[in-house]
Design goal:
Elements (H helix, E strand, L loop, with lengths): L15 E10 L2 E11 L4 E6 L5 H8 L7 E6 L2 E2 L5 H9 L1 E4 L11 H12 L4 H14 L15 H12 L6 E5 L7 H17 L3 E5 L3 H7 L2 E6 L2 E6 L1 H5 L4 H7 L16 H4 L8
Parallel strand pairs: 3-8, 3-9, 6-7, 7-8
Antiparallel strand pairs: 1-2, 1-4, 4-5, 9-10
Helix pairs in contact: 3-4, 3-5, 4-5, 5-6, 6-7
Bound molecules: adenosine-5'-triphosphate.
Length: 279
């Protein structure tokens, strides 16, 4: 019998790849023709105008919604072909931190982080304890294990949510607005932590955020979503120097540009009943 060769993951294969993906809800496409590759070990930031489709793209990446056209691949495998068990297995490799990273208010910090381990594994209590304390240590909160969510600050709560998102040692972590509502110091700490955890634990991360300064500081790659498409992608530096007027307006935080400040309307003089001639 020929010797079996061990299958090693191909590090060159992107962890996630979208090929010409269109996606949306109830038959209505929100995004079209999206091509995106997510390199292992990298941090991708999704930026763009409100309602432009960043969260929708995050859902397509994690197969919470199925593409209407094109392919979404995880580890080289088209997720459309996965049965229930296959999808479950893929999801277990993804950690998620959604807006505000809400904690269970009736569970203490330790139990919040232990929750996914208890839900998804049958590990003995001693191992759950070690894993939870390791994750809490990684976010600097091993000493806060017995506190209730009402007893910790917003920034600490976000770090607990982060520890919970990585409790199952995922390959990919998805963050939807991880900085929302944080003061500038906690925001900086959380951003740095996301990058450090990514590198120390060999994760791959996707961050949806409006905080361009912090996001650009920690991302390897940025994709800007607007008008139903990924209109630009590249390194933070490339986006900063983009000549695209839409990217310039967004990254430069200019109030007017291709995205108009005013909704289209009849001329202002007409609305106020002024004819333009002196009375
Ligand atoms: N579950 C849903 N069902 C139907 N339409 C949805 C759903 N979720 C989002 N949408 C629509 O999809 C569009 C894109 O929304 P999405 O939340 O992806 O944008 P976003 O860029 O993340 O916005 P924001 O920055 O404001 O969070 C919006 O028009 C929204 O109304």
């Amino acid at each position: 019998m020929p010797a079996q060769r061990l299958q090693t993951p191909d590090q060159e294969t992107p962890l996630i790849e979208l090929r010409d993906v269109s996606c949306g809800y109830a038959g209505r496409a929100i995004l079209q023709g999206v091509n995106l590759q997510l390199r292992r070990g990298s941090v991708l930031a999704l930026i763009g105008t409100s309602g432009g489709g960043k969260t929708t793209l995050l859902r397509a990446l994690s197969r919470q919604i199925t593409p209407m056209a094109g392919q979404a691949l995880f580890d080289g495998q088209d997720m459309a072909g996965l049965d229930q068990a296959g999808l479950f297995a893929v999801r277990r490799r993804m950690g998620m931190l959604f807006q505000f990273g809400a904690l269970f208010t009736d569970l203490n910090v330790f139990e919040n982080v232990a929750f996914p381990l208890r839900e998804h594994t049958k590990l003995p209590e001693s191992m759950i304890r070690d894993l939870v304390l390791m994750k809490l240590n990684a976010v600097g909160l091993r000493g806060a294990r017995d506190l209730m969510p009402s007893e910790i600050s917003g920034g600490m709560a976000r770090r607990v949510a982060l520890a919970r998102a990585i409790a199952l040692d995922p390959d990919l972590v998805l963050y939807d607005e991880p900085f929302a509502g944080l003061d500038p110091i906690s925001l900086g700490v959380t951003a740095r932590l996301i990058r450090d955890l990514n590198d120390a634990l060999g994760l791959t991360s996707v961050i949806v955020s409006h905080d361009l300064h912090e996001t650009f500081a920690i991302a390897d790659h940025v994709a800007m979503v607007a008008n139903g498409r990924v209109v630009a992608q590249g390194t933070p530096e490339e986006l900063r120097h983009s000549q695209d007027p839409l990217v310039q307006q967004f990254v430069g935080a200019q109030p007017d540009g291709p995205v108009r400040f005013h909704q289209p309307a009849v001329p202002v003089l007409e609305d106020f009943g002024v004819s333009g001639r002196s009375a």
